[in-house]
Amino acid sequence: MTVTGPGVVAPPLPTARGPISQWIIDHCTRRVGPPFPSRRDVDPYGEDLHLALYLCYELHYRGLADVPEAMEWDLDLLGIRLELESLFLEQLHRDVAGGDDLDAELDGLLTETVGERSVSQHLATEGSLEQFREYVVHRSAYHLKEADPQLLVVSRLDGSAKAGLAAVEFDEYGSGRAEDMHSELYAAMMRELGLTAAYGDHLDRVSGTVLAEVNLMSLCGFRRELRGAAVGQFAVIELTSSPGSARLVKAARRLGCGPATEHFYAEHVEADAVHEQIIRRDVIAPLVGTEPELAAGLVFGIQASQHLGGRFADEVLGAWSTGRSSLR
Ligand SMILES: [Fe+2]
Ligand SMILES: [Fe+2]
């Protein structure tokens, strides 16, 4: 196997977005700053909370430049993280319908117009190249670590659910070829679009709404009790990706983006048509067959993921409709 890329490089610390993320950055770098702010008035979907959580998770993924690796298990940081996660989860539970009718949720994914679709619809029909590049910058917060949050869940499953999820992950990681890893395909697309593609490069520009989506994946990945929600979230990606990616292929062609850009989305049209089947038949069916109590968690993962996707679409389309950039 040929090794491409520079190996694991810890991304630089971003600029704080408020007192919570400032506290995390100060704590990580052992600077003495202001005390942790009051928990009251914290926006559970806010830029500050989500940058803070994103940094907490980054310590588990690739670490952060100039932060000691041992900070990953710092007890103060872990305690703060749990509090922030609770605020986020409680708000999500207030904002989604819940329930345990999993089949209805899964069927809904195949027919409903979810927020993500309208961004891809906009880009396919009328969006500018600059808007397409903005979209790619936002989504880099996930795609440069594509499949990493879901890998955490594999160890919590067994039998065909485990084998099915591992099969999908194997594809996401390029089926044994580093240059075909979806994160690598994404980086190649970014370079083709004139964007730098190092992990973490664009963190300062990415919306907190996007960070919230990635944080939910990490949160559910790291907490065993939320494994159902993690699978539900992954189902949303896999069941809605194929048509969304087809619209982005159309956008890439219309805007003359180039072969690497078309390839990233075309690969997802094809792969995710298969992944959708595997997730439904080989992962979700056996999982709820053996652990029926996970159905409500799966439903929560699906609904929460759609809710956050809708917020992202509203934010981005709202900015574009008034001629503004959606980036920070
Ligand atoms: Fe992928
Ligand atoms: Fe996939």
Structure in words:
The protein has 328 residues and is mainly alpha-helical. It folds into two domains: 19-94, no CATH class; 98-321, Heme oxygenase-like (Heme Oxygenase, Chain A, Up-down Bundle). The chain has helices at residues 19-28, 47-61, 75-95, 102-111, 115-125, 129-143, 148-154, 159-172, 182-192, 208-222, 227-254, 259-290, 295-321. Helix 5 (115-125) runs parallel beside helix 13 and helix 11 (227-254) packs parallel to helix 13. The longest helix is centred in the last third of the chain and has 32 residues, at 259-290. The radius of gyration is 19 Å and the shape is globular. The termini are far apart. One fe (ii) ion (FE2) binds at residues 146, 172, 182, 268.
Chain-wise SSE layout:
Elements: H1 19-28, H2 47-61, H3 75-95, H4 102-111, H5 115-125, H6 129-143, H7 148-154, H8 159-172, H9 182-192, H10 208-222, H11 227-254, H12 259-290, H13 295-321
Helix pairs in contact: 1-2, 2-3, 2-10, 5-11, 5-13, 6-9, 7-10, 8-12, 9-12, 10-11, 10-13, 11-12, 11-13
Bound molecules: fe (ii) ion (2 copies).
One fe (ii) ion (FE2) is lined by residues 146, 172, 182, 268.
